[in-house]
Structure to design on (575 residues):
């Protein structure tokens, strides 16, 4: 059957990427004389004799003698696994592995849509359209609430990457404990929110019913509410799983998240086949299948992170060993986390508002356009995982490179001799230490991913619409909107790469300001320029174009290194 072939292909692709991901791991340790300076696993030789004592203390992050070599290497391998500027091969393996890992959630929603759309029609064609339409607001509510919690995992990635750069095990363990405790608390709040306020939220998403379709709208709302409440049961574990996934990826463990994705995909596919296709449970069966998959996959992730935390604690002080796996941050740690996570949370709210407004606008054109929008957005978000993976790569590698760039600039300002000063300037502009070089490499993959996403997304919408529904009118409507969705899929990976770079540099003020402008423009387009369903995807394309222009200009400016300006600044300091 169609679903069986789709499942086998998804599993095979996942397995291939898991095998390829073995090449993504590894770190380098270098020594020069008796002083090693480690920055995210990278090393460079510092002319310590030419630097003041206070600057020497900043640079000598890990000074060891030959007798301590084995102990230090073992310690670094358990805490940090990055080695400065990654090669094209390393970036490819990391991004490919992350795509496979992050494709899990949209893949589960996509499989649910295919199963419900194909097999709910066996009892009634109208029932198929109603349940497929209900999946739109239901999956949007579930996926949006989970997506909103990624501010925790994004903040975790940033804080851990900097802790790895400093080789600060105490900060690593305390950060992990705080974010896991916060994840559990947020997950419980999501469960309560959906169970007690889910009906009102879904009613707002679906929109007001006309007199002729009151009964149909009630059926859509009832089905969407059932799906959402079942999915919400596992929200606490799901949020902890997202955070655990970020921790593992930041430490370059791609095998465990890959295994979790494989388990989730297989369990969800088998569950949909049994509960939806054979037992005819419809949308409820899809929800139970996805929930069971989530429990198993996230359980694997959380268990692995607990084991990693125990290894981090090994041979550390009693203070570090006493830190529990789950704890809430104290006042100082909470403020530090909020300063980083707050702007990210606002950005995620902005994205959810924008995409939710698109769903609301699509629903205002009727049940059929809402069902069509559900399928198109599932396809868009499925391919959007490429952009999310590229953004995560920027957030993982860039903090260390920016930290190294900062130390180079500090070295230039405190160099006492012209020879040492010129050497530092050349080192700062060297491609091996320049964050812009990494961005060029990452953007190379972004463009490639955009081309693939655009072509594949358009093909699915134009030629494979029958996979999701047997209604010919829905297939025709998807074909009309597919060109604009395809262009949005092309721009999205590049946009997310640039956005991840801004987050890595903690340029929070600019990020928030750009999203305020972009969101106002998107909402205005939806409010005043959408006279037909296809115009919703005109607005989606505009949203991507505005962001890529704003982010591109900012990132290019912030990562540039002007040799003339550095020389002038150095001469001023020397004078």
């Amino acid at each position: 059957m169609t679903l069986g072939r789709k499942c086998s292909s998804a599993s095979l692709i996942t397995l291939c990427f898991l095998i390829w991901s073995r090449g993504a791991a590894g770190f380098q340790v270098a020594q020069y004389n008796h002083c090693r300076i480690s920055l995210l696993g990278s090393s460079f030789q510092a002319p310590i004799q030419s630097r003041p004592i206070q600057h020497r203390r900043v640079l000598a992050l890990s000074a060891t003698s030959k007798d301590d070599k084995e102990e230090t290497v073992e310690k670094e391998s358990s805490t940090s696994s990055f080695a400065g500027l990654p090669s094209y091969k390393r970036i490819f393996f990391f991004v490919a592995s992350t795509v496979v890992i992050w494709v899990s959630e949209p893949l589960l929603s996509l499989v649910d849509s295919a199963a419900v759309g194909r097999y709910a029609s066996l009892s009634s064609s109208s029932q198929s359209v109603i349940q497929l339409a209900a999946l739109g607001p239901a999956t949007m509510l579930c996926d949006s609430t989970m997506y909103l919690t990624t501010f925790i995992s994004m903040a975790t990635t940033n804080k851990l990457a900097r802790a790895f750069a400093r080789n600060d095990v105490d900060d690593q363990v305390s950060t992990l404990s705080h974010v896991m405790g916060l994840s559990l608390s947020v997950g419980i709040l999501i469960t309560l929110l959906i169970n007690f306020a889910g009906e009102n939220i879904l009613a707002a998403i679906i929109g007001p019913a006309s007199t002729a379709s009151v009964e149909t709208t009630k059926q859509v709302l009832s089905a969407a509410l059932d799906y959402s409440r079942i999915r919400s049961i596992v929200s606490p574990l799901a949020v902890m799983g997202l955070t655990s996934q970020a921790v593992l990826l930041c430490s370059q463990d791609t095998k465990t998240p890959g295994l979790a994705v494989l388990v989730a995909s297989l369990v969800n596919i088998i569950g949909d086949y049994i509960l939806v296709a054979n037992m005819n449970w419809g949308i409820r069966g899809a929800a139970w299948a996805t929930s069971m998959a989530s429990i198993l996959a996230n359980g694997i992730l959380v268990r692995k992170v607990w084991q990693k935390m125990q290894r981090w604690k090994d041979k550390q002080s009693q203070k570090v060993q006493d830190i529990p796996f789950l704890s809430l941050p104290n006042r100082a740690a909470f403020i530090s986390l909020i300063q980083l996570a707050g702007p990210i949370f606002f950005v995620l709210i902005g994205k959810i508002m924008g995409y939710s407004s698109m769903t609301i606008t699509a629903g205002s054109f009727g049940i059929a356009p809402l069902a069509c929008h559900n399928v198109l957005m599932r396809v868009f978000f499925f391919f959007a995982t490429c952009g999310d993976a590229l953004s995560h790569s920027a957030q993982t590698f860039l903090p260390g490179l920016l930290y190294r760039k900062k130390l180079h600039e500090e070295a230039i300002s405190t160099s006492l001799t012209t020879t040492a000063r010129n050497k530092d300037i050349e080192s700062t502009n060297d491609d091996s230490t320049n964050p812009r070089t990494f961005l060029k490499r990452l953007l190379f993959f972004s463009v490639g991913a955009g081309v693939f996403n655009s072509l594949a997304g358009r093909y699915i919408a134009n030629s494979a619409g029958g996979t999701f529904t047997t209604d010919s009118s829905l297939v025709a409507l998807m074909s009309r909107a597919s060109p604009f969705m395809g262009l949005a899929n092309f721009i999205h990976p590049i946009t997310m790469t640039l956005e991840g770079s801004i987050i890595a540099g903690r340029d929070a003020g600019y990020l928030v300001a750009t999203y305020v402008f972009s969101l106002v423009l998107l909402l205005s387009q939806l409010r005043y320029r959408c006279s037909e369903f296809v115009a919703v995807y005109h607005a989606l394309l505009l949203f991507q174009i505005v962001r890529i222009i704003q982010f591109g200009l900012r990132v290019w400016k912030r990562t540039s290194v002007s040799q003339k300006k550095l020389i002038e600044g150095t001469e001023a300091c020397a004078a």
